[in-house]
Amino acid sequence: MTVRMNVENQPARPVAHLPDAQIVTEVRHYTDRLFRFRVTRPRSLRFRSGEFVMIGLMGDNGRPLLRAYSIASPSWDEELEFYSIKVPDGPLTSKLQHLKVGDEVILRPKPVGTLVHDALLPGKRLWFFATGTGIAPFASLLRDPETYDNYDRVILTHTCRDAAELAYGAELVASIRSDQMLADLIGAGFADKLIYYPTTTREQSPKMGRVTDKLRDGSIFADLGLPPIDAAHDRAMVCGSMGLNTDMKDILEGFGLREGANSDPAEYVVEKSFVGDGI
Ligand code: FAD
Ligand code: A2P
Questions:
Q1: Which of 106, 109, 134, 203 is the right S-S partner for 162, CB 3.0 to 4.6 Å?
Q2: At 45, phi and psi to the nearest 5?
Q3: Which atom of ligand 1 is found nearest the CA of 84?
Q4: Which ligand does the CA of 95 lie closest to?
């Protein structure tokens, strides 16, 4: 269910009361573990698609309770989108999951992160490897014209436990493919560059299994009709659990890719989508 505030019909920009607060403009629940929300964007906030910020709510002790969140919207969007887990006893998300349109969310306007174009050397194909909420930074990058200007092919892989957890990514890809504004900005046919490879591990779906296994046995390349990853022109960004990130580092380095950073661009970059063992 989506609840949306009609910002155009508001007499003026809503006024927040908490320090650094933004106003929730939309909330959409996907499953009992996942939801998305949008908030107003501070006029002064500049960020690179793929970066994260600290967001949160006022804690019971009167101090802000903040957590890292990838900005899921692109840098040109006038609002900010976030895609969130609901941890049943999580200090922040046990409350955040009850957000309603018009509520306030604290947002520290200091974006940072390694999943940015600047951290990669030029290439021809860009791979986004995500599990769970790790798709959030790629939701930003997939709506950024620079992604399609820089690469001939953009491949999004998303592995989740079950089909319902793929819905956010599936809707995102469908909306990009039919987005007239992006087509006007980037050029007609830009969406032909975008390849989507969703897999599930705990429920039957058209493509079953961990993406790491499909890379190791080469079946992902056969499925997509693409040549294997080659350090000469393939670039990759990885965002998931510690387990995924560690496994993907091994796999990508096996293909000859080197890890990059903002200060030292190379062939792949990695960022945690959360700290801990997961829920
Ligand atoms: P916490 O005390 O923070 O976490 C409790 C436990 O829940 C963790 O130990 C872990 O086992 C599990 N957990 C936490 N987050 C997740 C998750 N996303 N997926 C699966 N299990 C999880 N979370 C998002 O939902 N969306 C994002 O875009 C996002 N971006 C992040 C970016 C970075 C760089 C980092 C480091 C973390 C990010 N997180 C994101 C995780 C987020 O910071 C919080 O951990 C999450 O919101 C839960 O907060 P909490 O206070 O409820 O529980
Ligand atoms: P699996 O079901 O085999 O554990 P979560 O919701 O726990 O964050 O997991 C999201 C998805 O990431 C699940 O489909 C999970 O598969 C998958 N996953 C977890 N660890 C890895 C890993 N090391 N490599 C690839 N996929 C992983």
A1: 203
A2: -75, 115
A3: 25
A4: 1
- pLDDT on residue 15: 58
Please write the tens of the pLDDT for every residue from 122-153.
999 999 999 999 999 999 999 999 999 999 99
Task: Give CA–CA dist 41/78, Å, rounded.
Answer: 6
* Residue 7's pLDDT band (cuts 50, 70, 90): very low
Q: Is pLDDT of 279 > 90?
A: no
Decide whether any atom of ligand 2 lies within 6 Å of the 72 Cβ. no
Within 8 A by CB and 6+ apart from 95, the residues are 57
Strand pairing of 234-240 and 34-40?
Answer: unpaired
pLDDT of 276 higher than 90: no
Start-to-end CA span in the chain (Å): 24
Q: What is the average per-residue pLDDT within 243-263?
A: 97
Q: Is 209 left (phi over 0), alpha (psi -120 to 50) or beta?
A: left
- 214 vs 165: CA distance, rounded Å: 20
Residues forming beta bridges with residue 80, ordered by sequence position: 39
Residue minimizing CA distance to atom 14 of ligand 1: 274
CA quadruple 9, 12, 18, 22: dihedral sign: positive
Among 57, 63, 87, name the best residue to mutate to test ligand 1's pocket (greatest count of ligand atoms within 8 A of Cβ). Answer: 87
Taken as a whole, the chain contains a residue count of 279
State the pTM of this model: 0.94
Question: How far is it, in rounded angstroms, from Cα 197 to Cα 219?
Answer: 12
Interatomic CA distance for residues 24 and 37, integer angstroms = 7
Q: Is the dihedral of CA 86, 87, 90, 95 positive or negative?
A: positive
